[in-house]
């Protein structure tokens, strides 16, 4: 069962009677910002706000803090009371904004001092506030619809904050009685209606506003139970900064908020650009943000930084310049919405802009986790798994484009930077600069220079095409790459001449190889003929055998060159080019010296030693005529 607390509905009732036009007597110097004043110029007189202006400004600050920390499910209904009541907005969620309320207040305007005071009363607004509390909000309707059988158990509670100038304590008690009677009447009507809900609990907060310097006619009173459905408390506050501090304390009490003061924030002064000063900024947030400090015992409370608000305590948080060292980073225990106490001060504005620029929700309203996933997807949409298989991610010249093309939105300066990067690549190609092409797995020196740039341009175009659907400026980067890849006619002619020259060199090299093969063929034919003739001479010498004692002919040709070379007919398979070359070298070297006599008379490259010392029976003959084995 869904229960709704008192803070679910808050009704502001602001007095719009003529006596609210009285000055708060808190003077504001309008001439204090003038650095130099010309002679004879009368300075501007100080001004003071009216009670009505103070009430509107403080109530708007209350609503601003509420909307900052609770953008939903905490609703405000604003009512202005004079001779009648004026409801400025409804309980619908689309009407819950400071801009909506400020626009309605501007239409109402300040109180009319000439209006009859007897016809004006804050009671009109209090009665309308009770009637408004009986109306069902969207969230209550959803809860009743979901719990059809237990619809009567959905709670209806609310709070009424009345800003007025009461006459006395008796006047205050009269206002409380009026509210109680109205609640009882409206509960009877709501009991028999499907569009209304009876009020189960109502808190009435009466804030008596009086000018500074006057004595208050109303006494402060803590919360008091008037009946089972109504409780009341009274605050007598001077107008001006005192009223602002009081409502700041009340918004913390009503919505269970806590305060944290960021101290020692460095900030350069506009008047002295070379110097800097430290400032403090007080932030409001839900009290649960301090629970971890309370559990660990590290909670250090400090006095309130706001003037005249001694009831409030704040936790001091020292500013630390963000660093990337993991040792200085702390674990996150929770995320809570914050709201600055003094939203218009310069330190608060600077801190707010810093946080919004670095850690805000984007324009689409996506939560941080979804934006982080989208960013990771864009950065890994084109991602080489192996760094040696990419060219552009190894090039320093492509880094500016690679870093900008993955952005969700690109500015005109980003597009110009990407185009400049493309032009630099074109200039590199014109100068024929080398590229970091990987040669792993390739034979030789890798692809030629033209092929390297073709690979680079293809990879770069693929990278940009993966992001071309992000925005129109991403499309402009792709169009620049496509335009730069189109070579001019003279460049194509130069490429064509280069290809012709390469073809001519290849043809010359081919003809040289054919000529060399032809010469090898001729040499091999001549060598084969010489080997055949040598074979014929050898066969003739074997047929005609001389006596062992006859000397060899002087002009007999050496047989080493031909006998060591195996006949081509005896070789199995085709003769290799290496064999032909070896035979040719051996034959040429054999003609340069006289062959060894033993090798010339050898048979099958084997020379027999001591041939003449053996007789016919294989016995050796010595000088004494004795034969020995």
From TrEMBL:
It comes from the Eukaryota. The keyword Iron-sulfur does not apply. Residues 488-548 have a biased composition (Basic and acidic residues). Its main location: cytoplasm. Residues 488-570 are annotated as: Disordered. It is found in: Cytoplasm; Nucleus. One of its GO terms (biological process) is regulation of mitotic cell cycle. Keywords: Cell cycle, Cell division, Cytoplasm, Mitosis, Nucleus. GO terms for cellular component: cytoplasm; integrator complex. Belongs to the Integrator subunit 13 family. This is Integrator complex subunit 13. It comes from Electrophorus electricus. The gene is INTS13.
């Amino acid at each position: 069962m869904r229960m709704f607390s008192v803070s679910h509905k808050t009704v502001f009732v602001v007095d719009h009677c003529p006596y609210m036009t009285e000055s708060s007597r808190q003077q504001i110097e309008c001439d204090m910002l003038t650095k130099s004043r010309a002679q004879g110029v009368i300075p501007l007189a100080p001004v003071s706000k009216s009670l009505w202006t103070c009430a509107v400004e403080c109530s708007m600050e209350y609503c601003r803090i509420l909307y900052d920390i609770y953008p939903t499910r905490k609703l405000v209904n604003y009512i202005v009371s004079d001779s009648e009541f004026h409801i400025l907005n409804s309980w619908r969620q689309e009407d819950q904004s400071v801009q909506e309320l400020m626009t309605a207040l501007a239409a109402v305007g300040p109180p009319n001092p000439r209006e009859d005071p007897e016809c004006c009363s804050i009671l009109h607004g209090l009665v309308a506030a009770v009637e408004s509390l009986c109306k069902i909000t969207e969230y209550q309707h959803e809860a009743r619809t979901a719990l059809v059988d237990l619809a009567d158990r959905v709670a209806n509670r609310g709070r009424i904050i009345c800003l007025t100038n009461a006459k006395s304590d008796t006047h205050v008690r009269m206002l409380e009685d009026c509210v109680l009677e109205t609640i009882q009447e409206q509960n009877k009507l709501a009991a028999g209606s499907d569009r209304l809900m009876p009020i189960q609990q109502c808190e009435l907060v009466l804030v008596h506003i009086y000018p500074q310097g006057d004595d208050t006619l109303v006494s402060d009173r803590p919360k008091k139970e008037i009946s089972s459905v109504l409780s009341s408390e009274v605050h007598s506050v001077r107008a001006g900064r005192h009223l602002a501090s009081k409502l700041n304390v009340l918004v913390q009490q009503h919505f269970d908020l806590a305060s944290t003061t960021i101290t020692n924030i460095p900030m350069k002064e506009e008047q002295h650009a070379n110097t800097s000063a430290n400032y403090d900024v007080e932030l409001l947030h839900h009290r649960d943000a301090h629970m971890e400090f309370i559990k660990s015992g590290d909670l250090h409370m400090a006095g309130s930084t706001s003037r005249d608000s001694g009831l409030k305590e704040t936790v001091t948080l020292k500013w630390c310049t963000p660093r990337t060292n993991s040792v200085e980073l702390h674990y996150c225990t929770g995320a809570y919405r914050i709201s600055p106490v003094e939203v218009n001060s310069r330190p608060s504005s600077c801190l707010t802009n810093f946080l919004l620029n670095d850690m805000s929700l984007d324009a689409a309203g996506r939560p941080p986790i979804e934006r982080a996933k989208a960013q990771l997807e864009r950065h890994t949409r084109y991602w080489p798994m192996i760094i040696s298989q990419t060219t552009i991610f190894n090039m320093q010249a492509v880094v500016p484009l690679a870093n900008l093309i993955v952005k969700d939105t690109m500015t005109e300066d980003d597009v110009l930077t990407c185009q400049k990067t493309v032009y630099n690549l074109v200039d590199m190609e014109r100068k024929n600069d080398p590229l970091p092409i990987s040669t792993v797995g390739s034979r030789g020196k890798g692809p030629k220079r033209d092929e390297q740039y073709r690979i680079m341009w293809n990879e770069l175009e693929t990278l940009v095409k993966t992001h071309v659907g992000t925005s129109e400026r991403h499309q402009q980067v792709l169009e620049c790459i496509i335009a730069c890849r189109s070579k001019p006619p003279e460049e194509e002619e130069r490429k064509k001449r280069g290809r012709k020259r390469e073809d001519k060199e290849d043809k010359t090299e081919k003809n040289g190889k054919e000529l060399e093969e032809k010469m090898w063929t001729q040499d091999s034919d001549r060598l084969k003929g010489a080997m055949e003739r040598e074979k014929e001479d050898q066969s003739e010498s074997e047929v005609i055998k001389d006596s062992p004692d006859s000397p060899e002919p002087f002009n007999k040709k050496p047989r080493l060159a031909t006998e060591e070379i195996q006949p081509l007919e005896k070789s199995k398979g085709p003769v290799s080019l290496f064999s032909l070359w070896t035979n040719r070298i051996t034959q040429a070297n054999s003609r340069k010296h006289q062959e060894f006599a033993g090798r010339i008379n050898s048979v099958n490259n084997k020379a027999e030693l001591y041939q003449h010392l053996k007789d016919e029976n294989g016995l050796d003959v010595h000088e004494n005529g004795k034969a020995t084995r």
